[in-house]
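Annotators were shown the component list below and the corresponding predicted structure, then asked to write short factual statements about the assembly.
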Amino acid sequence: MTTRIHEILKKYPSELLTEWFTSMTTGGMRRDALLKEGELREQCAEFLRLLTQATEHGNVTDITGSGFASVRDMLERLSRSRSLQGFSPSETATFIFSFKQPLFDRLRRELASQPEAVADAMWGATLLLDKMGLYTTEVHQRTREEVIVRQQQEMLELSTPVVQMWDRIVALPLIGTLDSGRTQTVMETLLQRIVETGAEIAIIDITGVPTVDTLTAQHLIKTVTATRLMGAECVISGIRPQIAQTIVHLGVDLAGVVTKSSLAGAFSWALKRLNQSLGSQGQRAPGKV
Amino acid sequence: MERIPILRMGKVLLVTIQVDMHDQLAVTLQDDLTARIVETGARGVLIDISSLEVVDSFIGRILGNIATMARVLDAQTVVVGMQPAVAITLVELGMSLPGVRTALNVEKGMALLQASIKADEAEPEVLDASLED
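Structure shown to annotators:
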């Protein structure tokens, strides 16, 4: 049964292509807006060509083998591009499944004299096409997931802009809810930027943070501590009255952390602190915060 | 035996850790350093850990201990050049190293030490002592 498929593919390439294309068109699976007719025809032809090559050695059930590498590559490319074009997974898989009809027709006609063999060959063909169809679905899903992961990453990076405010002063205005994943990124980017810029003072402004729970507060304290360990100082500014109340009610100890009510306040504190060390070296008392 | 070199620059002892610290090495450093402080009458210790990429709680504790011991021997300690990853690890381990002074790099750490030695600040440090989680 294995070589039968190959025989058919080799014997009627152009007929199969035409029939497949027709069945796809009449099945309403063609989406002109997204895919040009010529492109689709090209994809069909390429698939048939690669499939013919792959089935040459008689292996048609295991599509993970090396013989199918080029077919897998092609399907992967196809699935990826379709996923990005906005096709649904089933539409992508139908590309493969719609090939069943022309292939089965041919098999039936070719093996009309051996009903047994027809059943065998069809079963083999079904297995093969199903696997390939599922493969496109998998790739489709994987592509979507990659997109989501990338977007998440970008959002995280976008949401933690560390800006240099002055010589040796960086600020990190935080906007939105702080979850643990984000706080981790916040901490890492801030520390990294401190290394890059050689900043001595970092201002974390939480004006845009609507609520603070114990976990967030703890993360903030951790960030402040880590900053200090690296040799810089950290100020938290923009604590709203509501948040101040929450923090006290929760019993979070912010005693060792410098806090200012506004970003402007924190900035002027930072300037004063640096001026002190600039203007009169030796007068600075690093022990006091 | 492998040792971390301790350099003397005037009143300051300079320690640059350029290998990944294992426990025995850290203990040896602690011994050597305290001995050298007494020997030289040093007033300051500068520990550069910018090449250190991995720390565990033991190394963290040794760093804290060194600072405390040095203070007992009337020398101030500044740890400089801690990598972000190291800082995060220490914080996650719950070690904020209270009482250890820090600076971004050797230059700034040295300036800090010189300034405070000059001002002859003998008062104990209370820097962010309450930062413990």
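Statements collected:
1. The helical segments of chain B are 23-40, 57-72, 84-92, 106-118.
2. The first strand of chain B starts at residue 6 and ends at 9.
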